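Q: what sequence does this backbone want?
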């Protein structure tokens, strides 16, 4: 495989190419709810009781915002949608066989969970599309995901160019980056939250490959939703 090392990237807003994908409707579609995006790792609280922690959301994850709850002015009522694999249902991914982690769940009461569909990937794994309702703290989210990617690209440039030139995110696929980061996060001495932010940034701006029907279906829904543009 040909691997170029890009050495001349400026610190801020370095990558103009935009492969960011969002599944489902964009906020410009009429009738769809507004969205917010997690700035860092955010706690997902239950839809019934604010004190119930359902799990952790990864940085830069899109959340559909519902009706404000007067009883909880500090939090947004949100829904998070993605795919879980049978036998490993604690992780929500962006799409079947697209291993971009959206959230890791500890326990979700049935009242906060909807199953919207299912499909089997080419390897025989069964996937379910799930939507989870809950709450996030307002301070942990932003309305424009580009804020998150700008922060991430600065951190990436600062932490990952010490030993070699910066690799362009599109040099690898979304499914390749987590394996690379396993070693490189240790090399760079990243804290957990820094690793999560850089990983999500690299995966979201990664090379997109259509390898099976599920991805073809997914690509039909691609919206160029978030570009880091300086
Ligand atoms: C302490 C030095 C050091 C730091 C810091 C570092 N790397 Fe590396 N990186 C290396 C070395 C050495 C190699 C080549 C050998 C290897 O693949 O382990 C490499 C290789 C790579 C490759 C090529 C892998 C491949 O399969 O071709 C990528 C991509 C990469 N690093 C990404 C990163 C990212 C992302 C960060 C920041 C989180 C980072 N590196 C931080 C030392 C470092």
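A:
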């Amino acid at each position: 495989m040909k691997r170029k090392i890009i050495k001349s990237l400026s610190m801020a807003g370095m990558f103009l190419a935009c492969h960011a994908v969002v599944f489902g409707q964009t906020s410009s579609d009429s009738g769809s709810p507004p969205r917010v995006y997690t700035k860092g790792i955010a706690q997902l609280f239950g839809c019934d009781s604010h004190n119930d922690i359902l799990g952790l959301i990864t940085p830069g994850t899109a959340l559909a915002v519902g009706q404000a709850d007067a009883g909880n002015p500090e939090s947004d009522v949100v829904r998070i949608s993605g795919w879980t694999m049978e036998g490993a249902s604690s992780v929500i991914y962006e799409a079947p066989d697209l291993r971009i982690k959206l959230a890791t769940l500890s326990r979700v009461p049935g009242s906060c969970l909807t199953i919207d569909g299912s499909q089997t990937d080419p390897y025989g794994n069964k996937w379910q599309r799930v939507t989870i309702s809950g709450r996030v703290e307002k301070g942990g989210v932003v309305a424009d995901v580009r804020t998150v990617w700008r922060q991430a690209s600065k951190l990436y440039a600062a932490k990952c160019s010490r030993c070699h030139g910066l690799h362009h995110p599109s040099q690898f696929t979304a499914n390749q980056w987590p394996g690379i980061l396993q070693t490189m996060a240790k090399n760079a001495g990243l804290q957990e939250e820094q690793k999560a932010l850089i990983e999500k940034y690299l995966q979201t701006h990664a090379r997109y490959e259509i390898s099976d029907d599920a991805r073809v279906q997914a690509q039909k829904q691609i919206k160029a939703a978030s570009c880091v543009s300086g």
